[in-house]
């Protein structure tokens, strides 16, 4: 008797969220930090942002990017 063990491998997608919107994962081979730095060119507040996660949600690794809170003066 022969048994068949079918294994399905599903790639887990990576999502990077900032202020309720998803940032494009411009280079999935790069670290999340590097992708956020690439977006900082057009969104300057990302240059000092804090990255939290990942959390697994709906089959994706979700990273949340938040503005760093600082003090002035």
From TrEMBL:
<dbReference type="InterPro" id="IPR022289">
    <property type="entry name" value="PRTRC_protein-C"/>
</dbReference>
<dbReference type="Pfam" id="PF14454">
    <property type="entry name" value="Prok_Ub"/>
</dbReference>
<dbReference type="InterPro" id="IPR032866">
    <property type="entry name" value="Prok_Ub"/>
</dbReference>
<protein>
    <submittedName>
        <fullName>Uncharacterized protein</fullName>
    </submittedName>
</protein>
């Amino acid at each position: 008797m022969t048994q068949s063990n079918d294994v399905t491998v599903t790639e887990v997608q990576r999502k990077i969220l900032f202020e309720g919107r998803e940032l494009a994962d411009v280079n999935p081979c790069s670290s999340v930090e590097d992708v956020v730095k690439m977006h900082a060119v057009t969104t300057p507040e990302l240059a000092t942002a804090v990255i939290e996660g990942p959390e697994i949600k709906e089959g994706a690794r979700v990273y949340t990017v938040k503005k760093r809170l600082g003090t002035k003066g």
